[in-house]
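Researcher: Here's a chain I'd like modeled. Treat it as a single chain, no partners, no ligands.
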Amino acid sequence: MKLAIFSLLFGSAAAFAPSSHSGAVQKSALHETKADLEILARKLNPLVGFYDPLNLSDGNFWGTSNEATIGFIRHAEIKHGRVAMFAFVGYLAHANGFKFPWAMNMDGTPFPDNTNPPALWDQTSDDAKWQIFSVIGFLEVWSELSTPGNKHYMAGGRPGDFPDFVSGPEGLPHPVPFNFYDPFQLSKNKTAEQKERGLIVEINNGRLAMIGILGFLAAQECPGSVPFLTNLVQPYDGEVMAPFTQNYLGMAAGM
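Model: Modeled as a single isolated chain. Structure tokens:
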């Protein structure tokens, strides 16, 4: 999803505490066994409960362990949920004509007036898109780091946690005033119970947002496929899964 790309630039979650918090807080955030997932599932949705038709929670990805596999799939869901939440809000903003008042490009080109979100992405220059992808690439690499202050989510760390921006030999070559996670320290004084509830709210909202943004795009690509959205979203005849209008990979392969 093209609009989902932007969300990676801003994502953070109020459900997690910084890695230096007490063991009691970490206990409320860690669910490393199938039994823990079943308990979490009942808290997330008492009516549906634990639902794993593909038996992913019994898996052993890449020859690691079942606990590491559960850490991976939990982190993947939380991360996709955050992306979808920002994509959903971004879609609504663009569809209603909201845009930045300043110029989009250095040459003074303004942001387009298009209110069709996927088409609006197509109008964004490739230079701008490469800048976005470069930032995303950095954040992806940084999020996979294991440091003394941050364990990897497949090695006992907290799924969904994002390492702090630290400077020095084990971090960045310069100080960073704000962390990607909780830059304004809004969760600093929250109790373990509040953080646990925040995690449940975040996961549920993320799941709903994933359904919502895919529903928008399905209704645009295939009019009538989502009856509730008929006549509410504009049709789109482009390729929602292609980040560039030019097929760079195909060109390199002679296609």
